[in-house]
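User: Run a structure prediction on this.
Assistant: Running it now.
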Amino acid sequence: MKSLEELKAIKEKMQNKVVLRTSSGDTRIVVGMATCGIAAGARPVLNAFVEGVAEAGLGDSVMVTQTGCIGICQYEPVVEVFTKDAEKVTYVKMTADKAKEIIEKHIKGGQVVTEYTIGALKK
């Protein structure tokens, strides 16, 4: 059994992640976590977004959540970014490294990373 201090540390660490999933911020990041997404590697992508948003101190303004099938399984892992003042952006074939880049450029910087969007693949 773990010591009380270890359990408290685990609780604090996990509370930061739960807050990000229930925030009512202006930006919402939704990761497709149906069977197809998970099989394609969506879990590390979700974790990268949760950890990256927390590390950037954006927990008050950004909510990271998950959903079931988005319907474009061939492009999994799929992430949708909803912002208050812009249209939804759909990122496809995501990785944890791409998630970090999206946090820096899109979430913090306001610039869509077009080469990772579904529109870039359809050209």
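Residues 52 and 100 are 6 Å apart (CA to CA).
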